[in-house]
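job 3f2a | input accepted
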Amino acid sequence: MTAVTPGAVLRAITAFFDEALSQPDLRHRILSAARRRPPSPDPASLQALSFLSQDVDSSAATSPARPSPSALRAAEKLLLSLPRRSPLSVLLLSLIHALRRRPAAAALALLDLFALDPALARDDVAPSVFEDLFLPHLLPLLHWFADQRARILSSDSSSPALAAASAVEDNGCSEAAAAVSLLSRMSGGQAAELKKLEREYEDVLDANARVYAEYLKEVLESADGSRQARGPPQLILRMFDGEGGENEEGVEEEEESQEAIGLRSGQGRYNPLWADADQSIDLSSRQHSSKSPKKLANLPSLYPQRVPIHLLIRQPSSDGRDCAANLISDSGPAFSCNDNSVDSSSEIDPDIKEKNIDQALLQPNEIQHHRHEEASAQDTCSSSPPMDDSDSILALGKQTPPKDFICPITSNIFDDPVTLETGQTYERRAIQEWLDRGKSTCPITRQKLHSTQLPKTNYVLKRLIAGWQERNPYSTPIRMENPPSKNVQDLNTPRHLPSPTSVITQASTDGITGDLRIAISHLCTSEILGESEMAVLQIEQFWRESRMEPEILAALSKPAVVNGFVEILFNSVNPHVLRVTVFLLSELASKDKSVVQTLTRVDSDVECMVALFKKGLVEVVVLIYLLTPSWENLIEMDMLEALMMTIKREEEDLLGMCVKPKTASIFILGHILRREDHKSAPTIVGVLISERVVESVIPSLEADLVGEQITAVGILLRCMKEDGYCRNIIADKAELGPVLESFAMVSDVDQFEIIQFLSELVKLNRRKLNEQLLHIIKDEGVFSTMHMLLVYLQSPLQDQSPVVAGLLLQLDLLVEPRKISVYREEAIDALISCLRNPDFPSAQLLAAETILSLQGSFSSSGKPLARAIVLKHAGMKKSYRALMRAEQSTYVPEDSEDNLEEEKAANDWERKMAYALASHEFGLLFEALAGGLKSRNIEIFSACLVSATWLTHMLSLLPDTGIRGAARVCLLKQFVSILKSARHTDDKALAMLALRSFMHDPEGLHDLNLHIKDILKALRELKKSTVLAYEMLKLLSDGQDSSVDIWNHKELVQVDCSTHGEVLAIICFKNRIFSGHSDGMIKVWEGNENLLHPVHATREHSKAVTSLALSNSGEKLYSGSLDKTVRVWYVRDRQIHCVEIHDMKDPVHNLTVANTIACFIPHGAGVKVLSWNGGCKLLNPSKYVRCLALVQGKLYCGCHDGSIQEVDLATGTFGTIQSGNRKLLGKANPVHAVQVHDGLLYAACTSLDGAAVKIWSASDYSLVGSISPTVEVRSMAISTELLYLGSKTGVVEIWSKNKLTRVGTLQTATNSKVQCMAVDADAEILVVGTSDGNIQAWGLT
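job 3f2a | predicted structure (1341 res):
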């Protein structure tokens, strides 16, 4: 018979689904039948049924049944979450796959139903599928049943009752009448025997349907070429107790066979003997019905009625070829008590006959057999007609022995089975040979045996084997070393046994001769380790030279040989032999699943492999991978360190393994990290990054195996999610071309993982680098990446759409954004659709966060900085700096030269993106964001608020095309409500910034005036936090708001450090304060509310510490001292450790530090410039310098003569900002302090002309302002809003930078000279060091 093809299976099952989905009555009927089936449906299945039924029925009212994807996905998730399957859940899952246009998955699910509940599947759900796919394979079973039934009925053929019944039938009575007549007249023994046969028949039918369903699943799974399906399974025909049938001599079978097989009686199963009282079942040509043909298996049974004998019994065929026609012939009885039986007089429908011939051709085997004739059981009956169905003979004949009947050592059927104390059963001769070799363990479990005395024969198992052999006389015979004579009929008679030393060897090398046989014998039997090791090397040579011939593969895959290899792993210490052994086991495991089963049967074997891998035998990881251990087992193995070493090492696959060790390690590591709920995943990722394993995983993106590429993508994606700082390394070294080429070849799940990987990769903290990566993603693939993303966007899961849309939109913006683009339209539509769908809050939040990330600014860890940037626009600099500190590991000054080009690129991208989002469908996105602002989910509300504020603010910077009015209509009332009632000040500031954008046009001002009272009240509260609120107050009150700025400073703490002398230097960084003292002490303080906690102190300078400086990152501290040294300290864990000492040859004053140089004032004239790489030079030797400031490569010097000079360190050129003055009454007029801030130079001098502090433009040296304080200034500190001037009398004056007016005064506790001052980065705390050794801190409120 021709083998079943995947196409044939799909066609038959697809036709069933098309019919079921197009006919509501049929669909409701099969769902009701499945629901009534025990066990009772669980709540999840009923909920899934509700989703499916409501949606399909509603959609079918206007069009073919095509429910919404969201309902299908919800139902599918419910069903997949069930711990146990039920017939209803399996049926629902198959219907969902069919509706989602997954024909292969739908077919597999329906076949699962046939395997789970065959009776339900063939009777009530899919009888057409059973008839088309199963029935051709089961025809021999029906033949056999007909023969058994005929034998029972003919056992008393002389009975007048049966003769009368035959007469009734011959006289042309109806089939039902004939059946009733036959039932009423047969003997009690015959009726009981028939009922027993019918029950047993249903059990056999169920068993065969289950086996064949599994086979059809294998056929479908082999369609992609990833695996090869086995041949069709043999039929199970003799699962009975042996009464009747072909046991002509009345030999009774043992009771153990019934117990082992576990027969069960079915109810409502497919039974050709029974039919409903209201339906006459005709298995023949169905020519008597004028209606549509009934399905063969539609046989519900409540009130059974016997079907006439002639409907099921085979009739002799004139040509001996049409077994199907014989089966369905509607003629009279097939057997008679004489040789003159009459042939059928009725004709077979030609169409039905042709169809049945086609079904017969679908039998699993094409092997032709000779006809087999059976002797009659009684002399009164004639011989049975010849069985021309060769497939039936094959099914009745060669049955595969059950695996429990096979010895694991010899692979032969047991002849003398013995069961050890470990529960394992072996052939007596084989296990005796094992023990004679000195072994004292069980070969399978390797458990220590307490006794080497073999127990008695397992007679129960032996009787079961004998009974099975009697029922299967044509089954595969026992492979014996010395086969008995052909005349010997009793299989249980004693046989001549060969030498015990040959049992295991011959079983292991069956079919193999020569040197290989000897090598296997040495491997399995030798007591000498060296001899066994040599055998392994010889076997490897045979393996390579034979090119993996099937005979050698079969010989080496036997359990005895595999166990021999495992013994080598346990005992050998030769690295080469161990590698060769692992190579052979890996080759065998990759080609034969039975080897994997043998290796995983004993836990100690796997533990041995893991131990070898941890000791450095890297090839073992391939074998561990092939064993496919579970996730839990991988965690228990604790192989992370060994996996990392294998991944990091260079490729050295000298043996030519089926899988490279590094590849196998990648696969195992990917499997470990794939679990989202894995608690130790962050720890593993941290180790991968710290040990630089990520760099070794990156090359796998270019691997030849697509699976390795996808696994590497998953590992790198998990690393970026757990620790975003590694994305810079990945972006720098990854080649994305191979991954983009593989995108079209992988599954939907893998495609989305690639999309997530690319989306995370373009979240670098440099805009220009992000755009370079986007160009690579857009252009490097063989196929258009944008087109593939667009196709994927048509049918993703709800929580996948925002990620896909975000990446597609970024790729589209690489071209001119003002042009119409289908990619852009589809991407933004997808985002809006997710924002508008409150039924999926996770997708709604993801869409809002995607819009935030589209702003284009990210931290070093890949977190979006949109909120921080918008707060900066709103004037909330305190909140801005706090967010920047939280998101970035290093602090980069805003005026850094490296940021200029980057800032320009970021601004250009932000403008393009804002225009694309806001102009879509004339501001349709604002309507969706307004809906998100009404959400009770705090995360959704916050993300939508930031997105809406950002886009509204950007409208004020873009040309007005009318979109601003659309945004105002959608959002103005929402923003006013937030400004009025929000609890968090930052939320109020965001709403204020958005409302500020509406003030640019008259309509906006008019709408704001409708809420002017609430707005003014909120702005008066906010003006203490942001200047923008003050400006808006002026605009809304026509400049009449006379409120003044009030700056309040509250003293936080005062610390007495007088034991260490004067406080000569002080600096702040984040929440830490560093102070330098006149006795050489350096202290580290930690600020916490109203306290300063000393966390570290060191005194390595021998003289006063005159100055302190920090690197931009805050990782290094520089100290200058009068002991003529500069020390470099490493800042870590609230402590400082000296790592470098530089001898300056001069006392160090006013130390300032850049990236590669340091400048300080020596004891004499000029300024010394030190290069960290070595070398020192003296600049400006004609001037005595008093103070220094170093900004962007330019050195500003305040001199004793009152002059201020600028030195360009790159070119060595000088410039004069202020000329020196002559001494007044013989006294010097020095510049006491210089500071550069926001492009302005502040210089504190003696008040000769009434202005003690002058402000110069650092670019053109022009004087832009001056201040006349009431004190003599000796030190200075500048914040974003204020200027602090410290005097020699302990007074600190506070001036407004913008208005140049004094806003406050502070007084130190002891009226001592203010030596140094510092302001923290957030301008919240002022720290002062005085000459009497006190440190004081004030907070700005």
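job 3f2a | The chain has a mean pLDDT of 77.
job 3f2a | closed
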